[in-house]
Specification:
The protein contains five helices and four strands; from the N terminus they run H-E-H-E-H-E-H-E-H. It is α+β, with helices and mostly antiparallel strands and 165 residues long. It has one domain. It has a two-stranded parallel sheet with strand order 1-4. Strands 2-3 form a two-stranded antiparallel ribbon.
Length: 165
Amino acid sequence: MQTSQHVLFERSEMKDRHLVMKKIREHIADKAKLPILIFPEGTCINNTSVMMFKKGSFEVGGTIHPVAIKYDPRFGDAFWNSTKYSMLTYVFNMMTSWALVCDVWYLPPMVKEADEDAVHFANRVKAVIAAQGGMSVLPWDGGLKRKKVKESFKEEQQKKYCRIA
């Protein structure tokens, strides 16, 4: 990692966030440097949906080159369900899979519009990626797969459902 200009940070540390944004802006401004690869979901799920994007990647400016990736599970499943399999079992399954096959789509570059904030820009990019991969758009964070859902979120969804019925 030290040879390829990674930008490492601790997401929970607020000072690190500001430092990372500064480093990314400097990197973008230097046209001699290679583009930065960012995974704004911060996690992978079961290949059916695109989770909420972290807004930091969309606050720094610059052009976003979206890439949609969808795995074909026929030969091997690339996703680790940590509630179902241990890390050792997952690695064994990966190493003994016939192949890992995925479709990759390089989508047209996107730029934040003048009246758009980072969250709306992230959602617009996410929608384009999901549409290309034939996946649904989810409004929540990927961390939910490891945490319990907040009661307030459940209540909000229940109220929305009651208004429909």
